[in-house]
Amino acid sequence: MEARPFKDANYELRKAQLEAAVQAVPQLQEAAVQATGGRPRPGSTQTVAQQLPGEQLEQLLGSQGFAGFLESVVPRLDEALLQNAVADVLADDLGLLADEEAEGLGGSSSSSAGANGSSRAGGGGGSGGRQEHVLTEAQSFTDLTYSKNKVVSAVCWVPNRKGVVACACTDPASQSERLASMGRLSTAYILIWNFRDPIHPEYVLESPHEVFCFQYNPVNPDIVVGGCYNGQLIVWDTAGLESGRHGGGAKGSVAGGGRAGAASGAGGAAGWEDSAGEEAATPTIRHKYMSSVEHSHTSVVGDVCWLPGIEVDRTGKVFPIRANSAGTSAQSLLRSMTLGAAAMAAQAAGSNVPRECCFFASIAPDGKVLFWDVRVDKLLKKGNKRMDDAELVWKPMHSVHLLSVAGNDFAGCRFCFDPFRLDSGNFTAGSMDGEVLTGNLIRPPGEDNPDYTRCVFAPHAGPLVALCVSPFLPDVLLSVGDWSFRLWQGVESKVPVFTSPYAEEAYTAG
Question: Do β-strands 476-481 and 412-417 pair in parallel, antiparallel, or remain unpaired?
Answer without folding.
Answer: unpaired
